[in-house]
Amino acid sequence: MNTAMHVLPYLVAVYVFLTGCYGLATSRNLIHAVGCLAVCQSATYVLLLAVGYRDGATAPVFSDIEPGSRPVVDPVVQALTLTDIVVGATVTALLLALVLQIAKRHGTVDPDELRELRG
Amino acid sequence: MNGWILAATVGLGGGGAAALWGVTTGSPGRRVIAQNLTTSAVCPALLLLSQGYGRPAYVDLALLMALLGPVGTLVFARLLADDLADERPSAWGLTWAAAGLAAAVVIALCVAGGPGRAMVKLLVIGALLIGGNVIASRALAGGFREVRGG
Amino acid sequence: MSDAVITVSLLLVAGCATAAVVQRDPARQALVLSVLGAVLAVLFTVLQAPDAGLSQLAVGSALTPLLIMLCVRKVRRRGRTKDGAR
Amino acid sequence: MNRLRLWLLAVGGAGLAALLVAACLDLPAFGGRWHPYGDRAVQASLDRHIANTIASVNFDQRAYDTLGEISILFAAVLGCVVLLREARDEHRAPPEPAEVARPVRRYALLVLPVALVTGLYVIAHGQLSPGGGFQGGVVAATALHLLYLGADYGALERVRPLGVYEASDSLAVCAYLVLGLAGVLAGTAFLANTLLPYGTFNTLSSGGTVPLLNAAVGMEVASAVVVLLAHFLDQAVEIEEEHGS
C-alpha cells in the first residue's frame, strides 16, 4: 500500500490540474471558466504542500509545542501557498470584473459567440 | 493507532462523500442544504484532528470553519432566494442529526481535554457551529422573502 | 493511520474538483467550489499546514462564492433588463 | 471547427498528462526526510524568537517577495475599481430594503462582532499561532459583509464609508514600504529585521518588525477585500442600465 502512497498526492495534483485545464478549454460560459481556473490554482497548492510534507511530522508552529521536540514539515512551501491563495482570490475578482465588462459591451459571456462578433 | 484521527477519517469520508453527492445532484434547494451540511461534517473532523495530532493550535481552524461555514450558506440563501423561493428547502431531520453529531464530538473532546481555557474555546466553537447550522437551515427554509434589489 | 486520512482527503479533493469542472452552470459551480474550499482546508490541515488551511477556509468558503454569485446575478439581471428593453 | 478543436485538446492533454505523470514518478517519495530549506528556515526563525515559522518566512526571510504579493493584490484591486465604476449610460438605483427573517437577522448581527474580533485575533497572533495578516484580513472583511447578509445593502453602505477603506488600503501598502525603508535608513538592508529587539519567545511583541509588517498586510488585505466586494455589490445590486440603450 505505501508504495502507492509515495506518489499518490502528486498524481492527484496532476489530475486536478488537467481537469481544470479541460474545463477551462471547453467552457461555454466565462464565469464557469474562472471557476475552472480556481480549480487549476488549487491543484498547485496541493502539489506544493505535498512536496513539503514529512512523515510523522507536525506544523512548524511552536506556540503550543517545544521547538525541536517534534520533527516539522517544510515552512517555505506553506508560506508560498498561503500568500498565493489570497492573491489568487483577488486576481479571480479581477477576472470576474473583466467578464462583467465583456457581458456589458458584447451582451454575452459565451466565448464562442465573442469570436463571431469580431469577424 | 490514534482513535481520534480514525474517527475524523470516518466522519470526513462519510460526511464529505455525502455532501459532495448532495451538492452535485438534485434540486437547487437540496444542493444548498448539502453545502450547509459540509460545514457540520468538516468542523467536527477538524476538532478531532486537532485532538488526534496533539496540537491545540489547530482548533483555530475549526473556530474559523464554525464562523464562516454558515456565512457561506447565508450567501447562497440570499443570492439564490429567487430560485429557492418556490421550493422552501428544509431538511430539519438532517440538521438536527448534524447538530447532535457536533454536540457529541464537542462533549467527547471536552471530557478528553479536561477543564480550562481549551474547554471554553471548544464550547464556544460548538455553540457557533450548532447555532450557525440551525440558522442557516432556517434561512434556507424561507429566511429571505422575494429579494429583488436588496 | 495518518496515511489513511491523507488518502481520504486527497480522493475527496479529486472528486470535488471533477464535480466543479463538470458542473456547467456557474451558480451551481459556486456551490461545489465552496465545498471544494472546505475539503481543501481539511487536506491542508492533514498535510500539517494550518496557515494554508486557514487561508483556504477564509477565501474558499465565503469570498470566492460571494464574488461568483454576485457576478452571476449581474449577468442574469442584465439579460433580463435587456430583453425587457428590446 | 469544434471537432478539430476538441481533437487538438485531447492530443495536447494526453501528451501533457504523460509528461507530468513521468515527472511525478521521478519525484522524491512523498513524506521524505530531506528538507534542506525547511530546516534552515526553522533555525533562522527560532534565532529571531518568532514562534510561527511561516510568518517568519513570509515577513522576515522573504519579506521582499511579500512586497511583490501585496503589490499584485493592490494592482488587482485597482483594476477592479477602474473596471467596475459606473459607466455613462448607467444610473445608480437605490437598493430596495430586503425583508429578512428575525432569527437570521439576529444571528448575523450577533456573529458580526465575533467574526470581526476573530479576524483581528488571527491578525494579531500572526507570528505566534497559525494565522497572519493575509487570513485575518479576509476574515475581518467577510465579517463586515454579514451586515449585507443579515440586513440589506443600504444598512451596509451606511456603516462602511468606502473612501476610508480605499485610503487605508493604499496607506497600508505605504506603511509596509516605510517599514522597509526604515531598515535602509538604519544602515542595514531594505526590509531587514534588525530594527527592533526580538523580544522574548512566544509573546505578542516578539520577532522585531514581523508583527508590524503583519499588521500592515492585515490592514491592506482587509480593506482591499472590502473595496472589491463593495464594487461587486454596487454592480450586482445598484447600478442598472439605461433602458433603451
UniProtKB/TrEMBL annotation, chain B:
Membrane topology (UniProt): Multi-pass membrane protein
Keyword vocabulary terms for this entry: Cell membrane, Membrane, Transmembrane, Transmembrane helix
Subcellular location: Cell membrane
Organism: Streptomyces actinomycinicus
The keyword NADP belongs to this UniProt entry's keyword annotation: no
Coiled coil location: none
Transmembrane segments: 61-81, 93-112, 119-141
GO cellular component, one term: plasma membrane
UniProt-listed Pfam families: MrpF_PhaF
Keyword Aminoacyl-tRNA synthetase: no
Domain of life per record: Bacteria
Gene Ontology molecular-function annotations: monoatomic ion transmembrane transporter activity
Full protein name: MrpF/PhaF family protein
InterPro entries (UniProt xref): MrpF/PhaF-like (IPR007208)
From TrEMBL, chain C:
Gene3D superfamilies: NADH-ubiquinone/plastoquinone oxidoreductase chain 6, subunit NuoJ
Domain MrpA C-terminal/MbhD: 11-77
GO CC, alphabetical: plasma membrane
Key words of the record: Cell membrane, Membrane, Transmembrane, Transmembrane helix
Pfam family, one: MbhD
Keyword ATP-binding recorded: no
Places the protein is found: Cell membrane
Full protein name: DUF4040 domain-containing protein
The organism of origin for this protein: Streptomyces actinomycinicus
From TrEMBL, chain D:
Record membrane topology: Multi-pass membrane protein
UniProt cross-references to InterPro entries, sorted A to Z: CPA3_antiporter_subunitB, MnhB
Recorded GO CC terms: plasma membrane
UniProt superkingdom: Bacteria
Keywords, sorted A to Z: Cell membrane, Membrane, Transmembrane, Transmembrane helix
Domain Na+/H+ antiporter MnhB subunit-related protein: 105-226
One Pfam family here: MnhB
PANTHER family xrefs: NA(+)/H(+) ANTIPORTER SUBUNIT B, NA(+)_H(+) ANTIPORTER SUBUNIT B
Name this polypeptide is given: Sodium:proton antiporter
Native source species: Streptomyces actinomycinicus
